[in-house]
Amino acid sequence: MRVAGICNTDVEILRGYHQFRGVPGHEFVGEVVEVAGVSAAARKKWLGKRVAGEINVSCSAYGHKPVCDFCRRGLKTHCARRTVLGIVVHDGAFAEYLSLPLENLHQVPANVSDEKAVFIEPLAAACEILDQIPIHKFPEAAVLGDGKLALLIAFVLQARGSRVTLYGKYEDKMKLARSAGIRTKKVRGHANDLKTVRENFRLVVEATGSPTGLALAQQMTEPRGTLILKSTFHGAAPVETWPIVVKEITVVGSRCGPFAKAIALLRLGKVDPTPLISKRFALSEAAEAIQFAQKRGVVKVLLKNGK
């Protein structure tokens, strides 16, 4: 591991999400130092390469036969027997070394720095929206939330031509969006927003990481509009379903995404995530870094391995 990023999911895992026990961390850029079970040519191809890694390890990647139905259908991120790096039965990236199958790895282009490459996994999650909906049909979009993922989603949608309005609570975070040319509006992040927010959009992305964000997202979605759900958190979200039925809203759950699209955005300079970095810590300071990452106003915290 060269650089790892601390994600809200890592914090939720420490609170009990997925009942994970082991080494957390799933956002990383690393250097391949050993390859097992391959030809000499394949080993030579990968040794020394900088890589980012897809976090879902499918049964086909493990070499299981027969593979599950989801893998046969090409839905490896939903593999019935998958492990998930730093989340489900697979030690993660907050360590000096980690392991992943070769089919999970993507080489990092030379013109993409480590501090940009560490964003590939969450940026890919933002790019998943592009594979789920015809984005050209949504010239305007609202993103609810001002955290790391919400900001990356806003950057991606803007890069693909949508006029984005980001709704957030924290001025310092919204300033990052405005510096990228994204319009922002302040909300309080509680039930009173349902009374004060009156805008509607055909496309709304809920990425608040909060149970209260879902109700507002439903209210803001136009009839026959599309609501993308990106939040994951430990606990229940009280919600009424009648707006979905009455307004005939299309609700789309959205999780991991295409690394190739994320890498292309970075390689071409379409998205620069480095302004989101709040602080860097040494790997040996991981406990302190995780505490810092939970402070108000903090966006992305990085762990660096070695000098």
Protein architecture, described:
This protein has 307 residues and is α/β, with parallel strands linked by helices. The chain is 30% helix and 21% strand. It is built from 12 helices and 14 strands. It has a 6-stranded mixed beta sheet. The longest helix is centred in the middle third of the chain and has 13 residues, at 120-132. It is globular, with a radius of gyration of 19 Å. The two termini are 12 Å apart. The model has no long low-confidence stretch (mean pLDDT 94).
Task: Give the gist of this structure.
This protein has 307 residues and is of the alpha/beta class. It is built from 12 helices and 14 strands.
Q: Can you lay out the helices and strands and say which pair or pack?
A:
Layout: E1 3-6, H1 8-14, E2 27-31, H2 40-46, E3 50-53, E4 56-57, H3 69-72, E5 83-84, E6 105-107, H4 114-117, H5 120-132, E7 140-144, H6 148-159, E8 163-168, H7 171-179, E9 183-186, H8 193-196, E10 201-206, H9 212-220, E11 221-229, H10 242-246, E12 250-253, H11 259-267, E13 277-282, H12 286-293, E14 300-304
Parallel strand pairs: 7-8, 7-10, 8-9, 10-11, 11-12, 13-14
Antiparallel strand pairs: 1-2, 1-14, 2-3, 3-6, 4-5
Helix pairs in contact: 5-6, 5-11
With strands numbered from the N-terminus, the spatial order across the biggest sheet is 6-3-2-1-14-13
Shape: globular
Cα-based radius of gyration, to the nearest Å = 19 Å
The beta-strand count equals 14
Mean pLDDT: 94
Percent of residues in beta strands: 15-25%
Helix proportion range: 25-40%
In this structure, how is the largest beta sheet organized? 6 strands, mixed
- Strand pairing plus helix content: what structural class? alpha/beta
User: Which regions are unreliable across 5 or more consecutive residues at pLDDT < 50?
Assistant: none
Through-space gap between termini = 12 Å
Q: Count of DSSP helices? A: 12
What is the H-and-E element order? EHEHEEHEEHHEHEHEHEHEHEHEHE
